[in-house]
Design goal:
Helix content is about 45%, strand content about 25%. By secondary structure, it is α+β, with helices and mostly antiparallel strands.
């Protein structure tokens, strides 16, 4: 089942609508109180990062569910606020391989989405690569994808601060996976959770 689709934009976004759609989907699938609370926490974490992304993009939100498996979806498409100057500034950061600003899992997800948005015009067939803060290595434009599960695997090997970050994250502890991908000129974010 797919919930109603909520339009997201920098000018006219009621982010509370996302929480309402999430609650309606939980009720429809008859989640208990604890399950509903966990799904809402995931939606709240998603809502927290959207204002930064909606400064230069517009998008949509919806919930897909089958049985007790849920996916919270956000698609983002760059708008006129993503100027060439802003795009170049973000790409410069991506090639410097610094992630000082990417503290926390949601910041890494947000930055992955930002870097995919700035590269939306490039052809997926190009062999060029770039660095997304929060990924273990350089990412090819032919496969621009960030997943929480891949990040978890890298964190297990790295230990230290990266692992501590995962242990403290609501999303990392509740979500089965988070996938950020570039498809058809838009960025898709899917937060997955099965109860």
């Amino acid at each position: 089942m797919k919930s109603d689709v909520c339009e997201l934009s920098v000018n006219a976004t009621d982010l509370k609508t996302i929480l309402k759609e999430t609650a309606k989907s939980a009720a429809y699938r008859e989640l208990d109180k604890k399950e509903t609370y966990r799904l809402r926490l995931l939606a709240e974490e998603l809502v927290e990062m959207l204002p930064a992304l909606l400064r230069f993009s517009e998008g949509k939100f919806w919930v897909e569910s089958e049985g007790k498996s849920f996916e919270l979806h956000v698609t983002l498409r760059p708008n006129q606020l993503l100027t060439a100057e802003r795009r170049e500034k973000l790409l410069d950061v991506s090639t410097s391989k610094t992630n000082a600003a990417a503290v926390g899992i949601m910041a890494k997800i947000r930055l992955a989405a930002e870097f995919m948005l700035v590269d939306y015009e490039r052809s997926a067939s190009m062999s060029e690569t770039f660095y997304i803060p929060g990924t273990p290595s350089v990412v090819s434009l032919a496969d621009p994808l960030w997943t929480l599960n891949a990040y978890r695997e890298g964190a297990k090997k790295a230990k230290g601060e990266t692992w501590d970050e995962l242990e403290k994250s609501i999303v990392a502890n509740l979500a089965d996976d988070v996938v950020v991908a570039l498809q058809g000129g838009q960025v898709d974010i899917a937060v997955k959770k099965a109860f």
